[in-house]
Amino acid sequence: MKKKQLYLLAASVVLLIVFHVITFVLPFERTKGFWIEYVCSFIAIVLFLGVTAVFCVKDMPIKSKFLDWPVLNVSYVLLIVQLCIGFAVMALPVIPYQAALVVSVIILAIGVVLICAIKPAVDEIERVGQRAASKVNYIQRIRTKAETMTMRVEDKALAGELKKLSEAIRFSDPMSSGELYDLECGIENGIDKLNELLAASDYDAAFRKVREILQLLQERNLKCRMLK
């Protein structure tokens, strides 16, 4: 846990302690409104403390923490609004406890709903980003394999074919979809097989395999355009 995150978590715990000190040391009348706002404010602080603890303690990459900031902000705003309402009702016992209860319940409900709505959206954004990255990595991976084979081959004609293959992969659509999974597996398996043929110096079979992979790449790029 980084120092800034530790400070944030510590500040949340201190806030909980200060809240209890203020609530029970100041001469507030122990009315129904007082106890209602005490419970609602306590819930808001615990909710903020829980969100802060997850944000600080959970081992997540920087991008994930950045995406989770809206959740933390909502809990922060919820806390501030509820504390303001809570201390106002405690300080002014003339405020009807029914009104205090309705307002506080609405505030807490809105906060919880927003947190529950934002978190899945954040998780979906992260999931889509990871999926897109894996698709781009697929092209980079097979391109690296093809370029490595090109540098290793001594036969000029075959090296030229491998260079064409590397260029074809380089200019292929980096994105993909589930409908292309089998085709992409076929391309990568073909490249692995090509590597085995080169290791065995079976250049004739390697020529045929390169042309086969090029055809598969053309088919993949065509389907990519059709799926857009």
Properties at a glance:
single chain, 228 residues, mainly alpha
Give the helices and strands, then pairings.
Layout lengths: L2 H23 L6 H26 L4 H6 L1 H23 L5 H56 L3 H15 L10 H19 L3 H25 L1
Helix pairs in contact: 1-2, 2-4, 2-5, 4-5, 5-6, 5-7, 6-8, 7-8
Question: What report would you give on this structure?
Answer:
This protein has 228 residues and is mostly helical. It has two domains: 128 residues; 75 residues. The protein is rod-shaped, with a radius of gyration of 30 Å. About 4% of the residues have low confidence.
Note the total helix count.
Answer: 8
Give the H and E element order. HHHHHHHH
Average pLDDT, all residues: 81
Strand content: under 5%
Helix content: over 70%
Question: What's the domain count?
Answer: 2
User: How many E-type strands?
Assistant: 0
* Distance separating the two termini: 43 Å
3D shape: rod-shaped
Helix-strand category: mainly alpha
Indicate the low-confidence ranges by residue numbers.
60-67
How can the largest sheet be summarized?
Answer: none
C-alpha Rg (nearest Å) = 30 Å
Brief write-up:
The chain has helices spanning 3-25, 32-57, 62-67, 69-91, 97-152, 156-170, 181-199, 203-227.
